[in-house]
Amino acid sequence: MTVHSAFADHSTASRPSGERSLQVAVLGGGSFGTALASIAATRGAHVRQWLRDEQLVAHINEQHVNVRYLPNFAIDPSVHASSDMAFVLEQAELVLVAIPSGAFRAVVRQAAPLIGTETLLVSTTKGIEAGDDFHLMSQILEEETVSRHIGVLSGPNLAAEIAEGHLSASVIASDDDMTRARIQQALSCDHFRVYASNDRFGVELGGALKNIYAIAVGMAAALGMGENTRSMLMTRALAEMSRFAVARGASPMTFLGLAGIGDLIVTCSSPLSRNYRVGYAIGEGRSLEEAVEALGQVAEGVNTVHLIVDRAQRDGVYMPLAQALYQVLFEGVDPRDMALSLMRSEQGSDVEFTLPREAALDAQRRAARTHPNDSRDTLT
Ligand SMILES: NC(=O)C1=CN([C@@H]2O[C@H](COP(=O)(O)OP(=O)(O)OC[C@H]3O[C@@H](n4cnc5c(N)ncnc54)[C@H](O)[C@@H]3O)[C@@H](O)[C@H]2O)C=CC1
Ligand SMILES: O=C(CO)COP(=O)(O)O
Fold first, then answer.
1. Distance, CA 143 to ligand 1 centroid (Å)?
2. Is 298 annotated as a binding residue?
C-alpha cells in the first residue's frame, strides 16, 4: 500500500511559530474528520480525534493512517485518536463535529457536558435531522450545548482531495465574527483556504441540498447524458436550492459562493462523491438498497431528499427536481420517463431573483390563450 504524505509535506510551511497551541477536538473518525484533524495539526494545534472503533484508534496512533476511510494518506503524527470522549474534549477550545446527521444529536448530547460557553463549536456535517422539525446541524449544536460560538464549515471539500494536498477552499459561516476569524486562523494552510460568511443557514443548506442533486446527476451520467444535460441539471438545481433556502430566510447570494455553486459543481462532477456514486449505481440499474450497500458509507442525500420534498410541499416551494428524484428513488418511477416528464413541464424563469417565476408563467398562459395552437399540452 502506498501512503502519500501530503499532510506532512505541508506541515512545516504552515506551522505558525511562537504561538500558544490551540486545543482542537474532532468528533468523528470518517474521511472528512480525519482530513480536518490533520490540517489543524499541521497548523500547530494540539489535536485529539474521537472515534468509536478501538482498532482504528490504535492504528491511527501507531501507523498514522486511517485505514478504513483514508487508507492511502499519512495523517500528521501529532493527531491523537481516542475512543474516550472526556479525554478528547478535555481543554478543547475548538470542537469540529464530523458525524453523519443520523448520529449527530446523540454524539453532541454525549459531548455537551464537556463543552463550555466559550468553546468554538463547528459542524462539518452536510445533512438534515430526520423528523418533522427540519433541524439543521447547527441548530442541534445550539439546542444541545451552551456554546456561544457556533459555526458551520461547508464547501467543495472532497476529503480525499484535501488529504492529497489538492488546493481547496471552504467557508466558515457564523453570526459571530470571532468564531469566523479563529476558524480561518486554525484551518487555513498552504493547500486549504477558509472564507468567511455570516449566512449560517444559507451555507448549511447549500451543503445539505447539493447532495440530492449529486445523486440525480450521477444517475443521469450513468444513463449517458451529454454535457448540456449536466449543465442544465446543475443550474436548475441551483435555482431550486436557492429558492428553498431563501424561503427559509437564507440569502440567495450565498449560492453564488463556495458553499453553493462551488460544492454543487464538485459533488455533481466527481466519482469521489458518495452521493454521485449512489446515483450512478442506480443509473446503471441497481436498486437503492444495493447502491447504498455497495457504497458502505453514508450518502446524506438519500436521507435528505424526503425531508426536503416534505418541507417544500408544506411551505409551498416549487422543487421539481427534488420531487422527481424522490419518485425515482422511492416510488419506482423510471428515470428516463421522469426526465421526459420534466422536459415537458412548465417553463418558468431562468433567474427568479430578476424575473419572478410567476411573471414568466403568467406571460406563457396569456400567450397560450392568444395563440392556442402553439402552446404545449401540459401548459395550464
Ligand atoms: N467525506 C467528505 O468528502 C466530506 C464529508 N462531509 C460531511 O462530513 C460528515 C462526516 O463525513 P465523513 O467524515 O466523510 O464520514 P462518514 O460520514 O463516513 O462517517 C463519519 C464518522 O462517524 C462515525 N459514526 C457514525 N455513526 C456514529 C455514531 N452513532 N456514533 C459515533 N460515531 C458514529 C463513523 O464511524 C465515522 O467514523 C458528513 O455529514 C459529510 O456530509 C463534508 C465534506 C466532505
Ligand atoms: O460534501 C462533499 C464534497 O464537498 C462530499 O460529498 P459526498 O458526501 O457526496 O461524498
1. 21
2. yes
For residues 4 and 341, the model is more confident at: 341
- At 43, give phi and psi (nearest 5°): -85, 0
Does residue 255 have a known ligand-binding role?
Answer: no
Same domain for 164 and 277, yes or no, is: no
69 is in an annotated binding site: yes
User: For the residues 186-191, what does the mean pLDDT come to?
Assistant: 96
CA-based nearest residue to 27, from 116, 102, 121, 119: 121
Average of per-residue pLDDT across 94-101: 98
Per-residue pLDDT, averaged over 155-165, amounts to 96
| 5-35 per-position pLDDT tens digit | 555 444 444 445 556 799 999 999 999 999 9
Do 130 and 164 fall into the same domain? yes
* Atom number in ligand 2 closest to CA 156: 4
Range of the domain at 237: 209-352
Q: How far is the CA of 277 from the centre of ligand 2 (A)?
A: 10
Q: Are residues 176 and 262 in the same domain?
A: no
Residues touching ligand 1 (Cβ under 6 Å) are: 28-33, 51-52, 98-101, 103, 106-107, 124-127, 157-159, 297-298, 300
Q: Which ipTM value was assigned to this complex?
A: 0.97
Buried b (16+ CB within 10 A) or exposed e, 106-139: ebbeebbebbeeebbbbbbbbbbbeeeeebbbbb
Which ligand has its closest atom nearest to the C-alpha of 214?
2
